[in-house]
Write a structure and sequence with these properties.
181 residues; mainly beta; 2 domains; elongated
Length: 181
């Protein structure tokens, strides 16, 4: 993959033990395997792109990410599955408003695993709190159901009232398994 780039287009900052490039600093906006990149990029032992920073808005599968989003694949670009993305700006992911500068994680099946809401939202009938604090991150099961959230306001779940700020955890079927105030 690097063979397609001019040696003047990047600087190698770290190499694998066998001397192959691992981390690079790109000297401008460059397409690597069709993905618009800038800044730092990394390559696996086999030479496949593992992570980088988008130089412009880009579509991975059905999800569009803003310029300056930092992406990382599970097993490289050829596998195609995103592991996580540090968002370059506020944006929606699967219809939920997410905070720029926070990391959205994905399960191997590409359902969202973790994200940070930019504003309070109802998810699976639960009023979820927003914010960049790690405790405020929404967690999801691989089936897409809410796994944990902090309440944005007082709410009744399974016949019990919980106050705003309570952490709720749910099983994969949406049943409450753990409340913590």
């Amino acid at each position: 993959m690097l063979a397609t780039l001019s040696v003047d287009a990047y600087e190698v900052t770290k190499r694998w033990a066998d001397g192959r490039p691992w981390f690079l600093i790109l000297k401008g906006d460059i397409e690597i395997a069709g993905i618009p990149c800038r800044g730092e990029a990394a390559f696996g032992r086999g030479g496949d792109l593992v992570c980088g920073t988008l130089s412009r808005e880009w579509l991975f599968g059905m999800r569009r990410f803003a310029a300056n989003s930092q992406f990382r694949f599970y097993r490289g670009r050829q596998d195609g599955r995103l592991n996580d993305v540090k968002l370059g700006a506020d944006q929606d992911i699967d219809g939920l408003p997410c905070l720029g500068g926070t990391v959205a994680w994905f399960h191997p099946n590409q359902c969202v695993s973790v994200l940070h809401l930019a504003s309070d939202r109802e998810v699976d009938s639960i009023p979820c709190a927003s914010g960049d604090n790690l405790t405020l991150a929404l967690n999801f099961h691989p089936n897409g159901r809410l796994a944990s959230a902090v309440l944005a306001q007082a709410h009744v779940v399974a016949g019990q009232r919980y106050e705003a700020g309570t952490l709720l955890r749910f099983d994969r079927d949406g049943r409450l398994i753990y409340p913590r105030s």
